[in-house]
Amino acid sequence: MPIYEYQCKACGHRLEKLQKLSAAPLTDCPACHAAELGRLVSAAGFRLAGGGWYETDFKSGSKKNLAGDSASGGGEGQESKAPAKDGAAA
């Protein structure tokens, strides 16, 4: 559910309201009770609920570049596994 920001045109009172998308916009100011409340255009406010990437990834602060690690690690791993030229086991 989005958080909407409102401002009264009569008294200037500002408020935020958590509403459903299908809910009708507020019109009555809770401070002066005038029907002059208008919805403002502001930064998008939202709340993440439940489990997901924002809850589990990078929580410890150790950001790993897995694509970069596998590219550099794969080259070194292949060289160390190469058989010796004289036929003896390594």
Give a written overview of the molecule:
This protein is an alpha+beta fold. The chain has a domain of about 35 residues. The chain contains two helices and three strands. Strands 2-1-3 form a three-stranded antiparallel sheet, with no helix packed on it. It is elongated.
List keywords for this structure.
single chain; 90 residues; alpha+beta; 3-stranded antiparallel β-sheet; 21% helix; elongated; Regulatory_FmdB_Zinc_ribbon; Zinc ribbon domain-containing protein
Give the tally of β-strands.
Answer: 3
Strand residue content:
15-25%
Uncertain segments are 70-80
Q: State the oligomer.
A: single chain
Overall average residue pLDDT: 73
Radius of gyration, Cα only, in angstroms?
A: 29 Å
Q: How many distinct helices?
A: 2
User: What's the helical proportion of residues?
Assistant: 10-25%
Largest sheet: 3 strands, antiparallel
Order of helices and strands: EEEHH
Q: Roughly how many Å apart are the termini?
A: 62 Å
| Backbone shape | elongated
Main β-sheet, spatial strand arrangement:
2-1-3
- Return the structural class: alpha+beta
Domain Putative regulatory protein FmdB zinc ribbon: 1-42
Region (Disordered): 59-90
Protein name: Zinc ribbon domain-containing protein
Pfam families: Zn_ribbon_8 (PF09723)
